[in-house]
Amino acid sequence: MGLRAQEWIVVAYFAYLAGAAAFVPRVHRQQRWRALGMASAVSIAVFTIAAFDTAAMWWREWLPLIYIVIGYRLPALLVTSTNETIERGLLTLDRRWRVNTIRERAPRVVIDFLELAYLCCYPMVPLGFAVLYFAGLREEWDRFWIAVLLAVFGCYGVLPWLPTRPPRAIEGAPMPSPGPIRGLNVRVLGVVSNQLNTFPSGHAAASLATALAVGARLPLAGFGLGLLALAIAIGSVVGRYHYAADALAGIALALIAFVMSRLV
User: With 90 as the cut, is the pLDDT of residue 106 above it?
Assistant: First the structure.
């Protein structure tokens, strides 16, 4: 069997990263070769799986989840330092939009709710696909992954060129009366995050793209996921995991990715 549309997106993205490994300045040679090796391995795996696909290989439908994880980790290999000029610009916008004022004045219950919403960004994509998968909407599976992959890879692929730190790492000030959910978020990030900031926000883009892709066929489920996606985007900014501009750009990218997925 041939490659599906979403798999061509995967191959194109990792080919782009392989090319970026050769041109991003000041990257250690070992890191360049490691990035090139990972990108090549993923592309070869995609072609190999497509060549040997059978009806029993139901797990092929879920493989984009693995590609997303690798696609998130790999660009960090090409980052040697962050851009302080861009960081200052993003912080200036946050101050202009009074993000910290909103955070400081919001009731504790609202802060905890937004922290919990942000924690849900991790199961958001698999949950969205599971809804379509178990509903038997086979014709929507490809469109779902096209929307999500275009959204997340559009965020991750910019990292080598616009590397920044998340605002929480720069401001240094802890959240007022941090609760257990905040602590859990920080611990999870310590394990799964590359400790860099993606512009646009991958969390906002992936969550909204998921909600839109599900809502195209299942409006009620899509509406619920859409509310969660909105809370994730707001929580990422209020919790200082992302800048406000990150979230807005991620939302815009998700909308573009969804429209493109409907054209396929």
Answer: no
